C-alpha cells in the first residue's frame, strides 16, 4: 500500500496525460475497498473530491460512475460533509453523460446518506434528473427510481439494513417473512370488514 497509493495519487496531477488522470480515478476507486475506510479517508478522499470538478469531462464521468462505491467505503459522515456537494455538482454537469452516470449510481449514494439528507436534498436532485433535457439521463433516472424509493424503507418495519458497501440487504429473512404475513393478514381482515360493511349497506338500502 505504501508504494502503490503514492503512484495512484501522482497520476491525476494537473500536468499528467488525460488518459492517466481518467485511469487514476478508476484505480483509486478500486483501491479504496481494499485499504478500508480509515485509509481511504486519509489518502484518497480529498483527491477524489477534487477530481469530481476536473476540467476534463471524462474524469468527471469516471468519478460519477464510481461515486456510489467510493462513498460506500468512506461512510456517511465523509460523504455528507465532503462528497455530497461534489455529487450535486456532477448531477448538474453540462455533459449529459456525466449526469447519466450520476443517475446510474443514485441508489448506492442514497444508501450511504442519512434519511434527513435523503429526503431534503437527494429527492429534489433526483427529480431534476427525471426531468433532465437529455432523454438518456431521463431513462437512467426512471430505471433508478424503484431502487431509490427502496432506500426510504424503514428498517424497523421491513427488516432491511444497509451493509458496509451501501447495499440494501435482508438482515433477518424469518422476521421479514413474519412481518409480511402480518401485513397480508391485516389487509385481508380490512377487505373482509369493508365487504361486510358494503353488504350491510345494501341490506339497509333494500
Q: Can you put this structure into words, describing what you see?
A:
- By secondary structure, the chain is mostly helical.
- The chain contains 12 helices and 2 strands.
- The protein has helices at residues 4-10, 18-43, 45-51, 57-65, 67-74, 76-91, 96-104, 106-112, 115-130, 135-150, 155-158, 173-205; strands at residues 160-162, 168-170.
- A two-stranded antiparallel ribbon has the order 1-2.
- Helix 2 packs across helix 4, helix 2 (18-43) runs parallel beside helix 5 and helix 5 packs antiparallel against helix 6.
- The model has no long low-confidence stretch (mean pLDDT 81).
Write out key terms for the chains shown:
206 residues, mainly alpha, two-stranded antiparallel ribbon, 2 strands, 77% helix, elongated
